[in-house]
Amino acid sequence: MKKFAVRNIRLCTKDCLCLYVCPTGATDTENSIIDIDKCTGCGDCAAACPSGAISLVPYDYPPQQKKSERVCSAVMNLAKNKAAEERTAENIASETDDKNLARLMKAVARSSRLVSEDLLREGGYMLPQSSISQDLLASLLENPSAFIPAENARKILESIKCNDRVEKGGKFRCSVCFHEFELEDGDEHICPMCHSSKDKLERL
Amino acid sequence: MKYVCSVCGYVYDEEVEGVPFSELPDDWACPMCKAPKSLFFAEDSEKDDVKTEHIDVIDEDMTEIPPLVLSQIFSNLARGCEKQYKENESKLFTELSEYYRKASGNIENPSTTVIAEKLSEDLSSLYPTLRERSEMLKDRGALRVTVWGEKVTRMALSLVDRYEKEGSSFLDNTKIWVCSICGFIYIGDTPPAICPVCKVPDWKFECIEGGNV
Ligand code: SF4
Ligand code: SF4
Ligand SMILES: [Zn+2]
Ligand SMILES: [Zn+2]
Q1: Of the candidates A84, A182, B14, B193, which lies 20 to 30 Å from A119 by C-alpha distance?
Q2: H or E stretch covering A126
């Protein structure tokens, strides 16, 4: 899998070992951001960094673990309740004169949002690349009069591609179970027999 | 007898402490996470005795996502992009999140009682359903979010309950912190060294500003 290096500026202690080992000079930049045009993804900087400040991240993320509909719907029910908690707490915080209550309600609102975000990640919205996220964005395009949603969704869909569907259909063979099968444009990119993920499938 | 904190797992051992748990003052709280006495259970009792009346919830239509949940989905995806070092896309998702936050209607007569009811419903039926399904399907990620979420929700509910019983003076001259990873709420002058729920270090805690500290 093709990768490139990124530096967490918060963890970087400027020990400069990455400057010594990088064969392309990608780590030596005026703004501390590793130059991905120069980076070859060799990983030497990450291995040398004494502060664990460098990670290698893939250009293409693998599909998220498949989520069951039963889990997703239980997650959605909780998210709806958490949203009601968040909004109620926000409303109280903005109406009350009691400063302590306002802080407590802000904390409850923040907490409910964080819990809900975490829930939704487990309900399929982990990656912007997943088909569930992409379908949601695509549904925003249907209402072009609402400018921000349609415009932002269009821009995101342009730069982030779906990672769990086949763009172009065709014949495939699974290298795990040797099943041969056909997929159409936009089908889920897995083996229909053994559910192996797309990196196990070869196009015939 | 030993009593265990249902939020952080701290054990109160009557033998070591010399004071029976029942004789501790009502405002006694867990030394680790500040959970109130009511969130402790006796070690030999089954933890599930913290009664969960379990009604199987009717599954909702997945196509109807309320605006504020959309806002949460998008703020989460903004974080996801940030982690992938996709700053531009992160900004676009944040704008979407803010758009749906504003589009979401206000609650008529918002009250802490309404919040307490919702939090109680999470604990009595919604989390048990998610737990049951995660266990059945061996979805460890969903199980993790259940374990964390139940603890965070219990703590939030105990604070709202306390406010309803005695007003807000217990928050005089002290700060309120929220763990930016799991949402755990902590009352104190400084955040705990590690989050009692998700174990991240103290610098991951946000101080809730505003008010008379
Ligand atoms: S080696 Fe690590 S700590 Fe040192 S400058 Fe490079 S990234 Fe920063
Ligand atoms: S991965 Fe290799 S090429 Fe890229 S910045 Fe690190 S040392 Fe340089
Ligand atoms: Zn505790
Ligand atoms: Zn935490």
Answers
A1: B193
A2: none
